[in-house]
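debug: dumping io for the single-chain case to check the tokenizer round-trip. Nothing else runs in this session.
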Amino acid sequence: MDRVLNLLADDIQLVEAQFRKDLDSRVPLIRKVGEYVLSSGGKRIRPMLLLLSARLVGYTGDAHVGLASVVEFIHTATLLHDDVVDSAVLRRGQDSANAIWGNEASVLVGDFLFAKSFSIMVRGGNLDILRALSDATTQMAEGEVLQLISTCDLDLDEEHYIEVVRNKTAVLLAAACRSGAILGDCPKEQEDALAAYGMDLGIAFQFMDDALDYVADQEEFGKAQGHDLLEGKVTLPLIHALRQCTADERQRAEVIVDQDELPQEDLDYVIKLIDTYDGILYTRERAGIFIDQAKARLNVFAEGPIKEALCILADYVVSRAK
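debug: decoded output
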């Protein structure tokens, strides 16, 4: 991963400067909340994907910097809204914005970031990029609603869960890759290949988050262990365990998921259930399959340092510990 960061160091520095410029507002609270979330340790995966995709197809201009800032703004807006919906108090190991400034401020600053993103894109004047990112934000909203109606649903199967993940998480990574490709005015085959790479990468990324939620501690992962379960989110490790477990074990799990509170003994029971039926191993293996698929999407491109960087970034997704 260090090789990727070194390759993109100058561009990332420009993107960080663009964040500060794009947060300009007459309302001080907007800048304060926006800078707090943007500086809270995000990995900048989405901007990196856009920057690398643009380079891979030979783009030599400077519009990629502003667009990389836009995709991170969109991502940050969704984080602000997600934390309100989830009543989260932690984000990346520190107090969430809504825990500090309240739900109202978080929602409204998230709205500002969405609006600002589209204002920047319209000024950029590329209709295809505007279409790609606007379609992605629409799908993300649909994904949030899909997840909401799937809360506490132990009948949720893997196929439908992947649909939630594809819409809620992966679509923005795909759109970041597609936007970089559009900048370079590459053949449609290459544009679609990069978008598919981003989609597969995004699904794998979410699967790893699902696994880490059950195995990483709060200090390491930035949120409490079992946080997804407390919110009633049925994710892939549990979906797999429920396919294998006995009727009695499933009934106990249903009672636990339906509770408003999550006592440690109940969390321990679900973690043991997942461990018994290799839910974490299965989730990691499924993530690995999507990563292999993502890297195969790049076969339409010649070998080189940028393609190698995209493969390194993909491998990082399944090797990360937080």
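debug: round-trip ok. The chain has 17 helices and two strands.
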